Every structure is written in structure tokens, then in C-alpha cells.
């Protein structure tokens, strides 16, 4: 009886595990890069369209250069993106950059000299500041913004996945 219950539990869980593993290994059909993934906006203005072509209606315009965006799908030269608030649509790939940036999600975030909560403070960053990523360990990212360089906890940033390591 115990063996039958264990087998039934495994049969019930297997599709969930398979779907989870497949989702974590998704790749873009155009670039073969992981999906989802983070990029930044290359230009100071970028049209966000309802669908993946210039004939689709423009829903809005992103107007902040270097803002981090998350690519969730690919179609030809088009990428479906979303911002921190979940707003998004389709953008032409030429408007996007592989240069990684993050959005500060904590007001007066302390940028530290080393990846240690006791390290000296280099600067404080306001909520909504966009900073360039220099590198990330499992818990911290080294950022550059307005001439300052330092480390911030990854949990206070949007534009980098938890546990993502960047050199």
C-alpha cells in the first residue's frame, strides 16, 4: 500500500517538475539565449508596440535610457519586454543593449566599499536610480553610477535574478 501511494505521488508530481525544469531552461528561438533575461534600453526613447512589427500600434514610449528591461519572448527582430512594473510590449532589438543595469528599489540604498553590510559606505542611492552592473556575486552586485562604484545587496535591486552571478 505504501509503495502504491509513493508511486501515485511521484506520478502526480512528475508533470509539475518537468514543466518547472522546462521553464527554467527556456531559450529564445531567434538568439538561443535564456528566457527570460535582462537587458537595458540603448536609446533615450523606445516605442513599445502591441505586436512584433512596425504595423502594430504603439502602446507607449519608454523614455529613460539605460533602464533595465526583461525580455520574455522573441520573434524575428522583435523582443517582448517588460519593465519593473510589468508594463511592456514588443520592441525592436536595435533599441536594446546587452549592457546590464539595475533599478534601485530601496530609498537611500547604501553603496558599500566591499560586499559586506559592515563595510564603509561609498554613497547612498535614491529609489528609482538606474545603475550599471559591474559584477554580481550570489548576494551582492558591484554597481557604477554617477562616478561612484560600490556594492549593494541584490535584494534591493531590480534587473538581476536572485543567485545570478555576473563577472
Question: Care to describe what's here?
Answer:
Strand 9 (109-112) and strand 10 (121-125) form a beta hairpin. With 167 residues, the protein is mainly beta. The radius of gyration is 20 Å and the shape is elongated. It has a 5-stranded antiparallel sheet with strand order 6-5-4-1-7, with no helix packed on it. The protein has 1 helix and 14 strands.
* Helix/strand class: mainly beta
Q: What global shape is seen?
A: elongated
Q: State which percent range the strand residues make up.
A: 35-45%
Average pLDDT confidence is 89
Counted by DSSP, the helix tally is 1
Uncertain residue ranges: 2-24
Q: Termini separation (Å)?
A: 52 Å
SSE arrangement:
Layout lengths: L1 H23 L12 E5 L4 E4 L8 E5 L5 E8 L2 E5 L5 E5 L3 E2 L3 E4 L4 E4 L8 E5 L4 E7 L3 E6 L2 E6 L3 E2 L9
Antiparallel strand pairs: 1-4, 1-7, 2-3, 4-5, 5-6, 8-11, 8-14, 9-10, 11-12, 12-13
Could you give a short description of this structure?
With 167 residues, this protein is mostly beta strands. Helices cover 14% and strands 41% of the residues.
Index terms:
mainly beta, single chain, 167 residues, disordered N terminus, 5-stranded antiparallel beta sheet, elongated
Amino acid at each position: 500500500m505504501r509503495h502504491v501511494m509513493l508511486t501515485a505521488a511521484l506520478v502526480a508530481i512528475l508533470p509539475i517538475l518537468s514543466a518547472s525544469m522546462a521553464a527554467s531552461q527556456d531559450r529564445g528561438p531567434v538568439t538561443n539565449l535564456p528566457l527570460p533575461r535582462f537587458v537595458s534600453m540603448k536609446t533615450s526613447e523606445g516605442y513599445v508596440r502591441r505586436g512584433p512589427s512596425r504595423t502594430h500600434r504603439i502602446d507607449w514610449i519608454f523614455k529613460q535610457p539605460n533602464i533595465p528591461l526583461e525580455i520574455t519572448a522573441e520573434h524575428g527582430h522583435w523582443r517582448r519586454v517588460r519593465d519593473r512594473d510589468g508594463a511592456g510590449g514588443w520592441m525592436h532589438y536595435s533599441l536594446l543593449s546587452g549592457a546590464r543595469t539595475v533599478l534601485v528599489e530601496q530609498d537611500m540604498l547604501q553603496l558599500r566599499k566591499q560586499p559586506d553590510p559592515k563595510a564603509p559606505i561609498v554613497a547612498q542611492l535614491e529609489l528609482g536610480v538606474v545603475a550599471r552592473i559591474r559584477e554580481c556575486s550570489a548576494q551582492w552586485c558591484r554597481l557604477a553610477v554617477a562616478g561612484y562604484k560600490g556594492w549593494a545587496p541584490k535584494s534591493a535591486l531590480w534587473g538581476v535574478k536572485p543567485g545570478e552571478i555576473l563577472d
